[in-house]
Amino acid sequence: MRPILIVMAVLLALWLPSSEDVPSAGTKAVPASGLSESSEDVVVLPASPGRYGNLQHMRTPLPARSIALTFDDGPDPTYLPQVLDILDARGIKATFFFVGVYVERRPELVREVTRRGHNVASHSWSHPTRLRSWSLAEAHREIRRGFAALDLALAESPPDQRARLEPLFRFPGLNESPALAGWLGDHGVLVVSAEGGTDDWRGLSADAILRRTVSVMEASGGGVLILHETRPNMIRALPALLDTLSARGFTFVQITAGAEGRRRATDGPDPLFGP
Question: What DSSP state is assigned to residue 138?
Fold first, then answer.
């Protein structure tokens, strides 16, 4: 009897997958069923308190074990199309925080992002990581110029695509100041930090990005995730990262200020962008 039990235990151990198994970057995994359904979820961020992401503020009010993908520093002509194809293949919608100077050079990429159902928001005009040390007047001009570039890029877009310009702002390097955050709030713009990041900007390998990001999201139970579309190893890691998170029971949602939030931002006396 005992030999039989030992054999059964060995077979059971071989059959059960380890909860810690993470495929290497580049592994072609099959997304879990229902991923496309979860990607249709949209989370409207309330106007108050107006600052989200518990790396710095209150936790972003997302459903349990859900992730809002946010991509910084584009639009990049080499890597952005790859990111869009990877997301499309999985039915995931994201939010792209674009840098104004690149928006001005590549407005067609901004239009392509919104055409595919993603949201766009501002990451400033020139990505100054010490924006909070600037004079308020200079910082206000920097922020205005970033939104103006997005506004112009989508000026001739269909209304449904133009409406994907969100009143959301992410400080470069998350290096914000209460004064600037308050000024943005006065203009109806929400500040979005994050619950976690991929650390892809540190020069990590694709496998390291994958392992670290899965660990961060498991520890935080999901939330807003920062990725950088300009980092080739992040692009290499992205397919396996999304499939692994999905297989672990995470779903993907898209954040927005909602129609009312957008009206608050565009109907004010001194809007940063138009309706």
Answer: H
